[in-house]
Design a protein that fits this description.
eight-stranded antiparallel β-sheet; three-stranded antiparallel β-sheet; 3 helices; 21 strands; about 30% helix
């Protein structure tokens, strides 16, 4: 394979990865608490030099190979929307609700809660909402969430939502989309005095118009690389034909 083909194939792979992330962001743009995923581009020889510089000294490839950097999550807050529902709550500022799942404890900004038939507080995926002493189970009565994170039953505090902040948000990993996150690679501290907006939810932080522009530009780059690949293929074919004519 010629150096030019290596570079084009690497670029196509990088653009395909970018297109996948953009498509995921667009599909998650209406999900409560969804956080946009991002990636950037570098050249593989730069990555190689960064990794090997200490042991082998700086080195360069003959042909730079485009490379999609590992994805990261944009944790900027989304806009709040008022629902008026007594079990909806949005977190102001930093912090996450902690939920119990079959995969262990996870984090989310989605504060759309309900009470199941066993009087357990759950989210819209049926996952248990954690309080200070474990999953929250409530007595009979009218339930609502207060501004300080208290869960009130008939206006008396029955539990308090466990809201935590990770020490390193960059270490959070998306689980099944961008609304739920694993914190296995970092530690979390309790938010001692959280501020919630009862009767509201946090929208996705995806700007759909910007994501569409990014997708169109990325698709154009992909098409240019595809045409370059076709040109390389034609040139190689001509070279082979010329050699066979000798």
């Amino acid at each position: 394979m010629t150096p030019g083909v290596y570079s084009i194939v690497s670029g196509l792979n990088a653009r395909s990865r970018q297109q996948e992330l953009l498509a995921n962001n667009i599909s998650g743009s209406n999900a409560i608490g969804y956080k946009r995923e991002m990636t950037g581009f570098s050249s593989f020889d730069q990555i190689l030099r960064n990794v090997n510089a200490d042991e082998f000294g700086a080195r360069r490839l003959a042909t730079p190979l485009p490379y999609a950097l590992p994805s990261s999550v944009d944790f900027n807050n989304g806009e709040l929307k008022t629902t008026g529902q007594p079990l909806d709550a949005a977190i102001l500022g930093d912090g996450f609700f902690q939920i119990q799942t079959s995969e262990g404890l996870l984090l989310t900004r989605n504060g759309h809660f309900t009470v199941d038939s066993q009087r357990r507080l759950i989210n819209d995926g049926g996952m248990l909402i954690m309080g200070g002493s474990g999953p929250i189970t409530l007595p009979d009565g009218d339930v609502r969430i207060n501004q300080n994170g208290s869960v009130l039953v008939n206006n008396a505090e029955a539990a308090k939502l466990k809201i935590v902040v990770p020490k390193d948000s960059a270490a959070l990993q998306s689980v099944n989309g961008g609304s739920i996150f694993s914190f296995a690679n970092t530690q979390c501290d309790d938010v001692k005095a959280p501020t919630l907006v009862p009767g509201a939810l946090e929208n996705s932080n995806v700007d759909i118009s910007q994501e569409m522009v990014r997708m169109i530009n990325n698709q154009r780059s992909h098409e240019m690389l595809t045409k370059a690949m076709q040109t390389q293929d034609e040139l190689i074919g001509r070279a082979i034909q010329s050699m066979s004519d000798i």
